[in-house]
Amino acid sequence: MNITRYFIFSLVLLGTGLPKKIMAQKVSGKWYGVGMVDVAQATNNYLCELLLNQDGNNNVTGEFNYYFRNGYFSNKVQGTFKLDSRFMYIHLVPVMYNRTVNTLIGVDCPMHGEFVLKVSRAETTLSGNFLSDGLHQYTCAPLKVNFLKLLNNEPTLKERVAQLNKEDTTQDSVVVAAAPPPPLPVKPKEPEIATTQNVAKDAEQKVQMRLNNLVRVIDVSDDSVRIDLYDNGILDYDTATVFFNKKMVQYKRLLDTRRPISFYVHVDPVETNNDLVMYADNLGLIPPNSALMIVTDKEHRYEISLTSDFQKNAAVRLRKAKKPEMRAN
Predict the structure, then answer these.
(1) Tens digit of pLDDT for each residue in 128-148?
(2) Which of 93, 184, 212, 251 is the most exposed place for a label (fewest CB within 10 A)?
(3) Which CATH number fits domain 25-159: 3.40.50.170, 2.40.128.120, 1.10.1740.10, 3.40.50.2000?
(4) 0.70 cut: is pTM over it?
(5) Which sign, positive or negative, has the C-alpha torsion 128, 162, 307, 93?
(6) Strands of the chain, DSSP E
(7) Domain ranges for the chain
C-alpha cells in the first residue's frame, strides 16, 4: 500500500512540472525582431513580427508581418516545429525585395524561414533566416532575424507602426502650436557675424576631420546629374549634410523614406574626380546613419547604399564617361 501511494505521489510531482516544460518548447505567441539583409554593404532593415499558433502535432500557423520603408505587409504562414531539434520551418512567403525604393511598385521575393528556438531564464528567441528559393537565390539576399518573444499584452507591429505614423504626422502641428507669438518691434541691432557663408565654412572644416570611405566610382554621360537621397530602411530620423567637391550643397537634411532630398550637380569633364560626400549629423534611432543614393542622367540610373558615422563619411565619385570615338571608313 505504501509503495502504491509513493508511486502515485511521484506521478503527481512529475505531472506538475510537465506542462511548464512542454509550454517552454512551443513557438505559440507573439515574436518581434529586426530583419537585417545579410549581404555586404547592405544596410536595409525590416521590422518583423510573427504571430504563431502551434497545435498538438507541431504544425504551425499564423501571420508574418513586416514594415519596410513606408509600407506595412501581412502574410499568412504555415510551417512545422520539430521538438527534438527545436527547429521551425516556415513555407514560402512573399517578402519585398531589399533594394526596392518605392514599395507601391516593388517586387517580392519568395522566401522560406528556418529558425531555431532558444529558451533561457533571461529571454526566449527564434533565431534564423528567411531564405529565397533556388530560382532567386542570386537575386534575393537572406534576411537574418532574431525574434524575441513578447508578452501577449505588448503592442503588435501594426500598433507600433500606427503610433509611429501618428507621431510623425502630428509633429509639425505640435511645433506650430508651441511656437511663440511674433516678437514686438525693437530697436534694430547690428547684423550678426554668423551668416550662411560662415555655416558652410564651419561645416566644410568639420567634414575634413573624418575619413572618407569611397563606396563606389560611377560613370555618367551628362554634364548635370540628379541626386536623390532616401533613408535606407525605416524612418529613424537620420540627418545628413552633403558636400560636392568639398563644397556644402545640402545642410542638415532629414533623410525620409517617402520624400527624397533632391538636387543636381555639375560634373566637370576636365577634373577626373567629382566627389559626393555624405556627412552624418547624427546616428538616428538605429545607428549608423544610412541612406540610399540614386544618381540619374539620361543614360544611367545607379542605386548606392551609404553608411556614415562619427568616424567616417560615405563618398561616391562621379566620372564623366568618354564618348566612343568614331572610326573613319
Answers:
(1) 999 998 777 778 889 999 999
(2) 184
(3) 2.40.128.120
(4) no
(5) positive
(6) 29-37, 45-54, 59-68, 71-82, 87-96, 108-119, 124-132, 143-150, 211-220, 224-231, 239-244, 247-254, 261-266, 274-280, 289-296, 301-308, 312-320
(7) 25-159, 201-320
